[in-house]
Amino acid sequence: MTTSSVRVFHKLEGLFSIYKPPGVHWKLVRDTVETNLLKGINAAPPPAPRQRVQFLAEPTSVVAEGSNELILSAASVPALAHHPLVCGPEFQHIGVGVGHRLDIFSSGVLVLGVGQANKALTDLYRSHVTRDYTLEGEFGMATDNFSHTGRLIERTTYDHITRDKLERVLAMMQGSNQKALLTYSKVDMSTQEAYELAVKGELRPDGKSPPIMTGLRLLHFQPPHFTLEVQCLNETQRYLCRILHEMGLELRSTAICKGVRRTRDGPFTLQHALTHQHWTSPDVIQAIQQYRSSRKARKAKCTQPGKDTGTASQIQEMVEEAAVTGDSHRLHSVLTSKAFGS
Amino acid sequence: MALTCIQLCQRCTSLLRSRSVGIITLQYSTDAQHWPAALRNSFIVPVLPSVLQRSQSPCQTRQRWNLGVRSYCESHAKVQPKHRNTDELPGTDMVPYQNPLSHQLRDGGMHLKEWETALDLDDAPGHSALEEISHEEAVRMDIPAALPPVSISLKDYVNGSETLSKLVQLGVQLWKLEQRPNVGSMLLRLDFQTDVTPRLVFLKQLGVEDSRLGHLISHNPFILTESLENLQARVAYLRSKKFSAESVASMVSRAPYLLNFSVKRMDNRLGFYQQQLGLSAQKTRDVVARLPRLLCGSLEPVKENLKICKLEMGFRENELQHIVTVIPKVLTANKRKLTQIFDYIHNTMNIPHDLIVKFPQVLNAKYLRIKERHLFLQYLDKAQYDPAKPNYISLDKLVSLPDEAFCTEVASATLKDFELFQKTISYRQTPGLLRDDTIHEDGDVKEALRRLPEKVYNDRMFRLKRALDLSMKQAVLPKEQWTQYEEDVHYLEPYLKEVIRERKEVEEWSKK
Description:
Chain B: Belongs to the UQCRB/QCR7 family. Belongs to the mTERF family. Chain B: It is a peripheral membrane protein. The structure holds 2 protein chains of 2 kinds. Chain A is 40% helix and 23% strand. Chain A has helices spanning 4-12, 26-42, 84-87, 117-126, 163-184, 192-200, 237-250, 281-303, 311-325, 327-340; strands at 15-20, 51-57, 72-78, 96-98, 107-114, 131-139, 141-143, 152-155, 212-222, 225-233, 255-265, 268-269. In chain A, the strands form 3 sheets. In chain A, strands 1, 4, 5, 6, 9, 10, 11 and 12 form an 8-stranded mixed beta sheet that branches. A two-stranded antiparallel sheet of chain A has the order 2-3. Chain A has a two-stranded antiparallel sheet with strand order 7-8. The chains are: A alpha+beta, B mainly alpha. Chains A and B meet through helix 3, strand 6, strand 11 and helix 10 of A and helix 5, helix 7, helix 8, helix 9 and helix 21 of B.
């Protein structure tokens, strides 16, 4: 028998994204979301208390002595063994899974899945979706862990760095990453198939690969501060900080990473990510439904031209579409330029 | 013939189920291989001759079996003191079996302390299992359902136990209590009329509301085992300290463990707060009435928090008194979070001490909330917290208003804008001063500063000079030069610790 709690739980089974604030461990975020969802699930009123029948014999004073009759009266007594105060709320734990993790000092889109949707989570990540990051860097310093949280090792000058020098270095890095992408995609470069895939932008590494940046762009440059936008796969936040450090070295200076912000994780963008005031079950249900409807719309758009590709490449298609159209990017690039323009 | 057989069977099963602990477990022993051999041989069959020696009559039979149900549960509760046994048989705890009926018999039966004294093997038992009983008796026997001897949950006993069902009606959360070690068995052993009712009446007379009784017992089930004299003495002590009746009732209801602590301990704590904070008697009463758990917990965290407020944050005595009277929670707050919030407010938002003392509720707020709202106001160029200047935003409004009110009244923006801004926040920096630059200078700190290496000291002087210069110009450092969070090294800390340690040593020596 499905109680209302179970129905609410089924509605919650899906994928959604939240915005992880900086300075907080991802596990704490996941636990907070789980606690809030449990509150919403158990908030449903409990079912009516069960009754059990107990037979009580009549007291002997009523029954005449020496008679052979026994008069039993039935009493309906509440069965407390299934009372919520005795056995606890119906749901005491739900499985909330985390997609690609973010370390403590990064912020951004974090994909979570509830219940059965955790399987979809693994499928999503096996399909090599790319992620978008906004990296804030600063020239003139080098630290031991390449970010602002480390111990300062070196200070350098950065007056000689100009925008076009920076862009040249970025282009060089993008080139080497493209080459890596081609290598790891394990497609024979001299075939027509390879050409078609490359044209459509569907080249993806086959199996495991080191971190590869599929896109690199300079958003904002005001020495010593600069902001990069990166699209990558198989990365870690630490790797991205190292990229900035290496970029500084290429420019005969040093650089550290001051902020890592994930703006997109596969098909999940910043636009629909839930901020911490909205980590409650009604908002999460709405976010799940939104994701599902948008996915359906994208699927309909993809299957219209008659392509019969698997879900994995479909997701990549959506991803590429999002990257190409750049709607979400425009939004946050506007915001970031305002925020950093001083 | 058949009828007598039925009667015999009924008799056997009733005896087997209700009374004899040992028989049941012997049954288990025949099929359980994992019983230790020693136990199998030496398991004593506890027989309760008091019951067996009594005369038979129908009503007494029923009463006896009814009594048997309850004492059955408690007897098992006693045999297995670890209530959280799993499904394994009670072979691990070899507790000598004690007669549970000793405090159950209310109709003037024999009070037996140890079963050895009562068991007289030469006496013929009053009723044997093979005795014939009349049909009426057989039918009148109320055979209770078999209760499990061992259980990990109280739900198996709740229907049979008056105490447990009444507690559920009160609203006590048994599912939480049964997870605590030994609490489940303790609750089963309680008798509702003699143990629980007097204490509930006492609490009601104290003024605790009916709706709060469940909450109180859920958090502190041991109030039901505390002796009534002690409870009354503690309440009398609180009244003697001029706490009003309503405040005592509210304190007991909000700090469930309050009445479990001795008068001496409560007195010790009250004295500590009055002395340390230097507050008047009335003010101390107010503080304690607002946060009654100050009287329950340990004093060490409070002492550390007070030290932090004085040394690290640099609040003066009277400022600290004011803060504590407005927000008593500062005394029991998490140290790390308190310092993080103060650091952000004082060093990043550049709010001076007197303004923080004027609005102590900022110290009680969430760090993320303060940070997000401040950054939003800064983005809108509205972050102005100085009352002397125009467009002043009070800290109270910054922290206490809900999001929507904050956005419309304070920031003049929509909630959507605020959410969009929240999604652009990455890890931010603090301006060019480090934490130890702003430490309040007392004797220890001066000595520690004297010991700093030259380079560190020069850097500190440079930063302070720059900060003074900027404050004179009413300007802030450009963002490029702001200190990153982890660049904020606590350079003075090791020296300060050294100085304090030396001073304490000197004091110890001079005492002797």
